[in-house]
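Data card: per-record layout.
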Amino acid sequence: MNREQKKRVLGLCAVVIVGAAILPLLLDGAGYRERHLESRIPPAPEPVGLAIVEPQLQPLPSTAEPALPAEPAVVSVPVEPLQEAIDKVEPSLDPTSDTPGLDQEGVPVAWTLQLASFRDESNARALRSELLEAGYKVYIRHMAGLVKVFVGPELQRTRLEKLQAQLKQEYALDGIVVRFTTQ
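The structure for this 183-residue chain is written out next.
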């Protein structure tokens, strides 16, 4: 080892010894003070005492003997007004002429009435809201740049044909009956 290296090693040892003596004086932690913040957490509530409830058991009635049958309720319904109302209403479902069926996939065949097609969606929405206020089941669909207004669906095509004649009379709309699809 030459002289220069010896001086460097000696200087390094002197710095380490001085650092070991002074560093504990500087880093004793006396300058650190913990922040004391006020707690905003409210005090815990007082524990609630437990209520001791003693069960009051009542004996069940004896089932050794069978119970007596209750007397049947007597309801008097006036027959004449009811029969008149039944005679006035025509049956809404005719099972002999137009029976609902299933297609090849087992899905019920349903029909819907296409009333109108519009380029402007606001016109379709106006017609839909007018028909909804009148009590019809109405929906709209977007197809090939047009907005179409439909009434239905129904399982019986004859119902829609009657509804088509009624809507033609009320709103002067010629609709067509088409097969209902979910797309």
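Known properties of this structure: Strands lie at 111-118, 138-143, 146-154, 176-179. The first strand starts at residue 111 and ends at 118.

See the next section for split statistics.
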